[in-house]
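User: Here's a chain of 208 residues. Predict its fold as C-alpha cells.
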Amino acid sequence: MKKHPCINSFLANRILAPMCPIVKPIFRTVFRIKVTGLENIPSEACIVAANHRSHLDPPVLNAVFPEPLIFIAKEELFRAPLLGKFLPHMGAIPVKRGSGDMQALELSLSFLEKGCKVCIFPEGSRANPGEFLRPKLGVGILAIKSKKEVLPVYIDGTDKVMPRGKSFPKPGPIIRVIIGKPKDYSKENNYKEVAIKIMEEIKALSKL
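Assistant: Prediction complete.
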C-alpha cells in the first residue's frame, strides 16, 4: 500500500489505513452522521477549521473526510493512557494551550507545505452545547502565514452523543457535519480579524 505523504508511521500506513475503507462507513452508520458539502473539499492542502463541543469531533471529521486530517491537539491529550499512544501515529500536532506555541505553528505550516490538510479548532477548547467560544489567534496566524485556503466546518450533535464529562459515546442523536466553501485570507494581515471572520463563517453554517 502506498505510504501517505502526511503520516510517517508504520502503524498508521500499514495497519490503520487499510482498515479505513471498512471502518469509516461503519462509524458513520453507527453514529448516524449526516454530511453536506463534501463537494467543497479542495483536492489540495487546506486548513480545516471546525467548531468544537466534544472529544468525538476529531474521529467524526476523520470519518467524513476522504483522506486523513492532521489535527492540532492540546498537549494534555498526548499524555492520556490510550489515546496518547495513538495520536503520534495519526500525525497529530501537540500544542501548549495558553501560550504562543511557535513550534506547533511551524510544524503545522510544514504539513501544509507538504500538501496535507491540517485541522484546527479555532475556539481552542470545547464550548457548551449550542454555543460558540471566541476564537484564538492561532487560526488567523495559520491562515495568513500559510497562504492556504480555510475550509469552515460546522459540527452539530457530538455534544449529545458524547457530552463533556463522559468517557464513552452513546450513539443515538443524529450528528450533522456541514462543510462550507473554502476561503482565501492570504491578502489579510490582521490575525485577530481573520480568526473572527473564520469563526463567523462556521457560525453561519449552523443556520443552514
